[in-house]
């Protein structure tokens, strides 16, 4: 069936909203680009909308579609898109160009970086769009090969500054919703009754007629079903057949029944020939003719199928008229016939395609085919096609006769799936591998990867249990593996909400490391012990361990060292060594960008965000926003949740309560369940936002829950609980001085036992807030100022001055209140904390002084979006536009567009001015 048949004039019936979206996307194309994902059931009209977009484009159109039988071949769809644009390959950085050529088999390149491929594809499309606007249409996205789909996911999020429109169509049951977060999408709804009647009129039927009217409820609003039944009814009448009532009332898959009515009327030879069209990767006439000849058929066998509208003849070969036909053809084909067809096609093919045909033809285990698939998986991995290599390894494992080979190949499949972002598949395939592994070291490796995957996908507590059990089993067999497994179990325990477990696991890791007395194990144990001690509040010992561990890092920092470095950076931040933490995080982030391997970026970026959030809010916001984007792309719920709660806290402190609540709602829907360690960050963000909005009631409920959750977790480091002073203030504001004093005394105990600057300053602030005399307030203000001098905490210092100024004014010392209130107002304004600045201004006015007009202005850097700030920092650090594009995984044009807006917003004209501005703002060194 030609789906264009259900159009009414120029616009598809019932798709006004979708067409308006396409019009907006296409009309804006000369200035900017965008992506749009069309979701819907089979037959709902996705392909028709792509046809409509192509007809209305007024620009160059590139089209590609996923084909189920081609999904096993790496970068197939990417090749369809980019080979016509090969002349633009020279316009991307050489490393990206080489990676593209390697993955598309245009050059012999060993191990092309998958993210260099993604960035290179974006660069090529951007260059083509710069020459002339470009519309890229992808149909049947659910059948696009994993490597190409990964590139499309990457590109779709980065088109705002390119003259490229990307429209993709996918079935609703694709199962990858999280992978497309951040990409605008629309779900195609069924047609309503009026639209169905309009469609029937287009097919020459009177919808008021009883027989035609019955079609509307049967179609359930699916236009393909409706048109197929309408055609069947029209054909039956043309033949003079009568249709029994039950033929229309039998429940079942309506689309399939409509198509099967045509297939059933075909001669057996024609139906047999259809099997080859369905199974053939690319049913070109020559290949299909040879395959049909091998079984005594010919191309003429398909004539009746073509006349029945089941296949159509293109320039190069036959194709099925609609994707629904492939499973329908195969469902009515005996297994023996299907396996024979695969063998025939394998005999006519070579390379990877032949291997996959043989794999499909194998009725059971076959080591020869499994080994060939494994070789293909190695080649796909070298080309950076990790999604494709993962599937090849998995199929090789299914065909492996030996259990040991199954286990090894499943582990390889899981590893490639994990690093390609398919974390859930990685966890599942590790489960399969464990059922076949009998070798201790192999089992330990599988368990380690399974634990990592379970942790990142959002089940850290489960990951901890699995890793500890595996470590205990390995202790008597392979202490080195046991040490590694205990080490891997530490942070999932903390993320899972039990720091006591984390500390116990780190201690056991250290005991084993001491017996092994080798460098890597001792370094791992030192880092993890220091990290857990920082969490529990044993600050002195933690600081010694993590500084020693930092000193032991040297050279180029291999990937394993970088993973440890992120943990070192976190602990350094928690023990008031923020300069060292910033340097460690910066090194990891810079290496990830330079090497084009962003796997550690989400973790490192949220760690640096946590450090920067004490005072450099613009930088913290930029890091958290980038971490969120990478966490979503990798499917890492834990890092996605961490980034969301970090952004929510920053928004709450600035007084952007609605934005904060929206972030937390998204976090709770997509990430919250299963990650108890983030609960305190979510609750505290909501509580601090409520306090900033002058709403202490909800603040109390949120912050008390956060405080209780921290105690239950065993969290003893107050630097991870900067909301506690807010909790005391909220109790004071609601008249509960007793509870406010209890919280204040907790801060004193933490300040004394940890020696950290913030709890000491917060304790002094709370004592000033609860003081009964002005002299006492001033004494505690002086004490707080001394504590603040130990660490740069401008927001916290402003909060201290505001509280002290308010208390002095309440105690009828307005003259003494003015200076701290003026200083607080200046700092809040400079930080962009609008609600706190307004509160300080109100108190200052009540104290008899108004803020000096123009004395403090919101920072201009606050006008920059997160990505604009990232670009500005890259340029401010001396990178060229091309180098910045490579480092940030965007196109050169995106850098140029953002840089233009940065100059305009900051009121500067040159790169040197930008560098000086950012240095003054403490955003670059």
TrEMBL record:
- Location of the HTH luxR-type domain: 857-922
Q: Which residues form the signal peptide?
A: none
Keywords recorded for this protein, A-Z = ATP-binding, Nucleotide-binding
Listed GO CC annotations: cytoplasm
Q: What GO terms are given for molecular function?
A: adenylate cyclase activity; ATP binding; DNA binding
Q: Which PROSITE patterns has this protein been placed in?
A: HTH_LUXR_2
- InterPro entries, per database record: AAA_16, P-loop_NTPase, Sig_transdc_resp-reg_C-effctor, Tscrpt_reg_LuxR_C, WH-like_DNA-bd_sf
GO biological process, alphabetically ordered: regulation of DNA-templated transcription
Q: Which domain of life is it from?
A: Bacteria
Protein name in UniProt: Transcriptional regulator
């Amino acid at each position: 069936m030609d789906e264009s048949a259900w159009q009414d004039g120029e616009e598809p019936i019932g798709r006004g909203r979708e067409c308006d979206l396409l019009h907006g996307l296409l009309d804006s194309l000369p200035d900017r680009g965008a992506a749009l994902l069309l979701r819907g059931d089979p037959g709902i009209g996705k392909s028709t909308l792509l046809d409509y977009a192509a007809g209305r484009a007024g620009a160059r159109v590139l089209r590609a579609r996923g084909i189920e039988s081609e999904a096993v071949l790496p970068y197939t769809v990417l090749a369809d898109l980019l080979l016509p644009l090969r002349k633009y390959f020279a316009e991307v950085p050489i490393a990206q160009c080489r990676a593209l050529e390697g993955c598309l088999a245009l050059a012999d390149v060993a191990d092309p970086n998958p993210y260099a491929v993604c960035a290179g594809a974006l660069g090529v499309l951007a260059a083509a769009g710069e020459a002339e606007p470009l519309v890229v249409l992808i149909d049947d996205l659910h059948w696009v090969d994993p490597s190409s789909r990964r590139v499309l996911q990457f590109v779709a999020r980065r088109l705002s500054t390119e003259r490229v429109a990307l429209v993709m169509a996918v079935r609703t049951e694709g199962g990858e919703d999280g992978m497309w977060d951040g990409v605008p999408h629309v779900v195609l709804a069924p047609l309503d009754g009026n639209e169905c009647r309009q469609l029937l009129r287009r097919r020459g039927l009177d919808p008021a007629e009883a027989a035609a009217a019955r079609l509307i409820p049967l179609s359930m609003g699916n236009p393909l079903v409706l048109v197929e039944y309408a055609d069947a009814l029209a054909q039956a009448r043309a033949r003079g057949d009568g249709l029994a009532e039950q033929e229309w009332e039998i429940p079942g898959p309506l689309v399939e029944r409509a198509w099967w009515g045509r297939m059933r009327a075909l001669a057996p030879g024609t139906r047999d020939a259809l099997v080859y069209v369905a199974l053939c990767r690319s049913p070109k006439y020559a290949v299909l003719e040879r395959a049909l000849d091998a079984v005594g058929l010919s191309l003429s066998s398909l004539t009746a199928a073509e006349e029945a509208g089941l296949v159509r003849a293109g320039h190069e070969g036959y194709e099925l008229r609609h994707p629904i036909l492939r499973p329908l053809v195969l469902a009515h084909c005996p297994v023996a016939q299907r396996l024979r067809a695969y063998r025939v096609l394998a005999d006519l093919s070579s390379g990877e395609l032949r291997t996959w045909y043989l794999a499909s033809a194998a009725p059971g285990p076959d080591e020869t085919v499994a080994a060939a698939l494994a070789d293909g998986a190695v080649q796909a991995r070298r080309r950076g096609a990790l999604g494709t290599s993962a599937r090849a390894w998995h199929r090789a494992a299914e065909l492996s006769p030996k259990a040991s080979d199954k286990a090894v190949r499943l582990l390889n499949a899981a590893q490639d799936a994990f690093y390609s972002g398919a974390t859930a598949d990685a966890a599942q395939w590790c489960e399969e591998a464990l059922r076949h592994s009998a070798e201790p070291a192999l089992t330990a490796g599988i368990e380690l990867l399974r634990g990592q995957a379970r942790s990142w996908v959002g089940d850290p507590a489960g990951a901890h249990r699995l890793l500890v059990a595996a470590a205990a089993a390995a202790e008597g067999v392979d202490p080195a593996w046991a040490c590694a497994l205990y080490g891997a179990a530490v942070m999932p325990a903390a993320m899972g909400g039990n720091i006591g477990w984390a500390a116990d696991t780190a201690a056991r890791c250290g005991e084993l490391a001491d017996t092994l007395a080798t460098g890597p194990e001792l370094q791992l144990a030192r880092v993890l012990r220091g990290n857990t001690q920082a969490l529990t509040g044993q600050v002195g010992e933690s600081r010694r361990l993590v500084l020693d561990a930092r000193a032991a890092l040297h050279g180029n920092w291999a990937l394993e060292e970088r993973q440890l470095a992120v943990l070192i950076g976190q602990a350094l931040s928690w023990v008031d060594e923020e300069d060292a933490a910033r340097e460690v995080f910066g090194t990891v982030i810079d290496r990830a960008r330079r090497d084009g391997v962003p796997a550690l970026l989400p973790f490192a970026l949220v760690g640096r965000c946590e450090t920067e959030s004490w005072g450099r809010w613009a930088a913290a916001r930029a890091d958290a926003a980038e971490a969120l984007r990478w966490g979503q792309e990798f499917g890492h719920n834990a890092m996605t949740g961490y980034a969301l709660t970090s952004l929510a806290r920053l928004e709450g402190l600035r007084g952007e309560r609605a934005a904060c609540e929206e972030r937390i709602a998204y976090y709770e829907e997509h990430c919250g369940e299963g990650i108890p360690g983030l609960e305190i960050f979510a609750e505290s963000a909501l509580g601090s936002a409520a306090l900033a909005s002058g709403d202490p009631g909800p603040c109390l409920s949120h912050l008390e829950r956060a405080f209780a959750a921290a105690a239950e977790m065993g969290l003893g480091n107050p630097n991870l609980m900067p909301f506690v002073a807010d909790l005391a203030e909220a109790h004071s504001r609601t008249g509960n001085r007793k509870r406010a004093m209890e919280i204040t005394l907790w801060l004193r105990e933490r300040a004394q036992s940890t020696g950290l600057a913030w709890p000491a300053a917060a304790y002094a602030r709370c004592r000033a807030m609860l003081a009964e005399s002005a002299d006492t307030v001033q004494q505690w203000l002086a004490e707080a100022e001394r504590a603040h001098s130990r660490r740069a905490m401008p927001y916290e210092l402003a909060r201290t001055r505001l509280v002290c100024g308010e208390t002095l004014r309440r105690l009828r010392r307005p003259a003494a209140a003015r200076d701290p209130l003026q200083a607080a107002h200046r700092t809040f304004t400079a930080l962009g904390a609008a609600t706190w600045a307004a509160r300080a201004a109100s108190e200052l006015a009540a104290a008899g002084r108004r803020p000096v007009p123009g004395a403090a202005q919101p920072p201009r850097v606050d006008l920059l979006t997160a990505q604009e700030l990232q670009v500005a920092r890259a340029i401010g650090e001396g990178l060229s536009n091309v180098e910045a594009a490579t480092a940030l995984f965007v196109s050169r044009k995106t850098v140029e567009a953002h840089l233009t807006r940065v100059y305009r917003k900051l009121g500067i004209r040159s790169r040197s001015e930008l560098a000086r501005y950012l240095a003054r703002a403490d955003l670059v060194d």
